[in-house]
Design a protein that fits this description.
This protein is an alpha/beta fold. Helix content is about 40%, strand content about 20%. One of its GO terms (molecular function) is tRNA (5-carboxymethoxyuridine(34)-5-O)-methyltransferase activity.
Length: about 250
Amino acid sequence: MTDRHFDELATRFAEKIYGGAKGAIRLAVLQADLAEVLPQRPLRVLDIGAGLGHMSLWLAQQGHQVTLAEPAEPMLEGARKQFAGAGQSATFIQAPWQEIESQIEGRFDLVICHAVLEWLAEPQAILPVLHRLVADDGRLSLAFYNRDALIYRNLLKGHFKKLRSQTYAGERQSLTPQQPLDPRELAAQLAPHWQVESTSGVRVFHDYMPADFQARTEPADLIEMELAYRRHPSFAGLGRYLHWLCRPL
């Protein structure tokens, strides 16, 4: 297994994720979580695996100094176009996470690492790099594909063969990540160096709704309810993604 980048899937990714409710819910939850904790001053922000730059653009529009690092040129070009269209500036680096430290200076008030770990051959290998990049009083915004949610989805579909064989990875052309993460394993890996300050589920119920229910529900209502239940003790762990805000120890 190798790290997977999105050169050939950039357009499909943009259309499927950010062209509908899934992307809207994801951005709403991540932005709500960050808005609660970010200090009211300009921050130095690094977005690792920035993709099309949706989160970075939101932060730049609030006056933060943003650096986007993305290995796939089609994705980075999409981010550049988004920033240009919005009249915002940023630093753009085409590089995988292994090369980021050699191309930047200093540490950051906020490091974003959203939907990256599940596409890596060895997700735990990036954790020391993230720790070195975050300032002592900074934060890491970590969002990852939740293996528990994928298991639950397969249970609901009756895909018991997959569960017996523990075959969780998606096909090569699938947008199901190659390595969904077990939250307990990740928590144990973070524990020596990070304090997880808050946790939220991203899409805690949307992806389990029957398609006809999804179709006749207003997007604003979906977002309202996802925000309301993102930290519910019974439902947060069912989020398709989990969002953890972490401080270095």
